[in-house]
């Protein structure tokens, strides 16, 4: 019985230590998610302004620009996968990798070759383990993404998009990332970034009777597009990085809260078992004393 009591005490101590760690990680994730959401809100006005500017140029001019031109045949597609550098976030990384591979499989069924661009150590580790090839990767900047990382990703995918197919270029680019919906929900998103599909305003604005102004472009619409489209691509990539970071912190908080609750349940169960074992040991000792006294009396 003494050995059994020691086992239960060790398990209770281990569960209590685990609970301290998971509770601390839950609190850290809760503080980080507020900062991440503040960054998303701060970046949104600029992203909306750039989208409206690009939409104005694209819809009010007849320029045939390479970034807005739909190719006659799409032979090679690029998929940019946004994961995290760390785990302990529940199904955050696995669901986005599953979504990305489903997108890639759909593109392959359409007769397209697929190449990958990876963001986050989890995606790199996944591809290394399965001996899959990728073009470029960016790691170490997923928890608190910087705009420099978005610029590097945008420059790489734009360079690949502008190349000819024979030189290793791609005909379209997809972004696959987790979008922050709420503290409990993170939704995988698949967005075709290039060729550009401009969706201006929302349903309420579209249904309104607002009269939009006439536009004049200086020096000309093509040069305006040349200047503003890279900024638009950077803002979309940066938004994907920020959304992914916020979703990751929310997933970590949810996973750590679940781990803390499970540790509490283990502590309760093992405490009950320890008390039962201790009671059984006391009962056995009393029985032995009474039996010994009866033997001496007889």
TrEMBL record:
Gene3D superfamilies hit by this protein: 3.40.1380.10, ATP synthase, gamma subunit, helix hairpin domain
Cell compartment(s), UniProt: Cell membrane; Membrane
Main location, first listed in the record: membrane
GO biological-process terms attached to the record: proton motive force-driven plasma membrane ATP synthesis
Keyword DNA damage: no
A GO term for molecular function: proton-transporting ATP synthase activity, rotational mechanism
Stretches of the chain forming a coiled coil according to its record: 256-283
Record's keyword annotation contains Coiled coil: yes
Highest taxon in the source lineage: Bacteria
Keyword terms: ATP synthesis, Cell membrane, CF(1), Coiled coil, Hydrogen ion transport, Ion transport, Membrane, Transport
Stored Pfam families: ATP-synt
GO annotation, cellular component aspect: plasma membrane; proton-transporting ATP synthase complex
Topological type in the membrane: Peripheral membrane protein
Annotated family: Belongs to the ATPase gamma chain family.
Function: Produces ATP from ADP in the presence of a proton gradient across the membrane. The gamma chain is believed to be important in regulating ATPase activity and the flow of protons through the CF(0) complex.
Assembly and interaction partners: F-type ATPases have 2 components, CF(1) - the catalytic core - and CF(0) - the membrane proton channel. CF(1) has five subunits: alpha(3), beta(3), gamma(1), delta(1), epsilon(1). CF(0) has three main subunits: a, b and c.
Protein name: ATP synthase gamma chain
Organism in which the protein naturally occurs: Microbacterium mitrae
Lineage of the organism: Bacteria, Bacillati, Actinomycetota, Actinomycetes, Micrococcales
Gene: atpG
